Amino acid sequence: MIEASDLHKYFGQFHAVRGISLQVAAGQVLALLGPNGAGKTTTVRMLSAILKPNRGSARVAGHDVTVEPQVVRHKVGLLTEYPGLYARMTAVDYLLFFGELQGLHRSESAARAADLLKRFDLWAARDRKLDGYSKGMKQKVALIRAMLHDPDVLFLDEPTTAMDPQSARTVRDAIADLRDSRRAIVLCTHNLTEAEALADYIAVVRDGQIVAEGTEYQLTKQLLGDPLWEVRTTRVLNGEVADIGRMVQIEDYGDTWLRYRTSQPEETNPSLLRRLHTAGTPVVSLSEVPRSLESVYLRIIGETQPERMAGVPDGEEVPA
Ligand code: ATP
User: Rounded to an integer, what distance in angstroms lies between the CA atom of residue 281 and that of residue 98?
Assistant: First the structure.
């Protein structure tokens, strides 16, 4: 649904995106993570045909973003970080106007808008002017605008930043529903819990390049090693520690607990439990120690410090 190959973007002499390639299939959420100024928004703007790449190519919903930018813009839903809304319009008028721009019939726009305004708890405020809306309310209207024409592809740049926890939850549920209905979604976020909850695949962008990518499981294993396990016992561990150390890599231990790594928990954990049982050491619990995406992310960002190159553009700077 989304295929990008070697995308580059220069702003004057500044090389903001330096060879990004990615793929997102229908029914998948790709989370783009990365520090401020990494190039996530610029990538999304190129993929949604708002900004023309200087080099590289991308096809979105079957259309080339450079050859058919107008078609791509109609095919995608875009939520930008700072959505410009028409402040003097009411939410309903704004959405009907936007539906018309997208070529929807008025009745269709009205029905979709009503549905979404109710879902995002804006129905009671539908006839108020947008300049009286709070930040979070504006963000919700912008999200409704992105979803109004029921696009196959959605680009959501920081969709929940301004929202209260309950609204953020509603938005995350909406994103999960979109994924279930086979939409392809690119989500830029600094909220790692959000990425953990929604992303099928994660790409970490730094200095205009993808510096790490994979599923959360793959990235965790790659960056933090084999899963960490913890066994807790009711009796003080003595001779068992040396015994267990021959089976697994022990990371740390105390009187009644022990942490270890194993690449084959299916085999190792049952035999470790058997060993403890035979030694007469009752086990209270054996569990995997949770590892957060945050620690993976910080490891990636800490380890990858490519040199910043400000090159001379290969192509002309093309305004949005
Ligand atoms: P954030 O997480 O802060 O939103 P980001 O990863 O989305 O950051 P971008 O907005 O893509 O980052 O910006 C990438 C780099 O390109 C930044 O250094 C930014 O200053 C620069 N940049 C973006 N848009 C322009 C522009 N229109 N003109 C000049 N430089 C720009």
Answer: 68
Collapse the DSSP code of 205 into the 3-class scheme (helix H, G, I; strand E, B; otherwise coil) and give the result: strand
pLDDT tens digit string along 238-294? 777 788 888 888 888 888 999 999 888 899 999 999 988 888 889 999 999 888 888
Q: How far, in Å, CA of 158 to CA of 173, rounded?
A: 15
Q: Give the C-alpha separation, 189 to 167, whole Å.
A: 16
User: In the chain, what are the domain boundaries?
Assistant: 2-221+295-301, 228-290
CATH code for the domain defined by 2-221+295-301? 3.40.50.300
R_g over Cα of the chain: 25
Mutate which of 7, 36, 42, 191 for ligand 1 pocket (most atoms within 8 A of beta carbon) = 42
**DSSP secondary structure letters along 270-301:** HHHHHHHHHTT--EEEEEEPP--HHHHHHHHH
Contact 145, 83 (CB under 8 A): yes
Q: What CATH architecture does domain 228-290 belong to?
A: 2-Layer Sandwich (3.30)
User: Sign (positive/negative) of CA torsion 121, 124, 127, 131?
Assistant: negative
Which pLDDT band holds residue 305 (cuts at 50, 70, 90)? low
Looking at the predicted structure, is the pLDDT value of residue 24 above 90? yes
Residues in the chain: 320
Give the binding-site residues of ligand 1, using a 6 Å CB cut-off.
11, 14, 16, 34, 36-42, 81
- Measured by CA distance, the residue closest to atom 24 of ligand 1 is 42
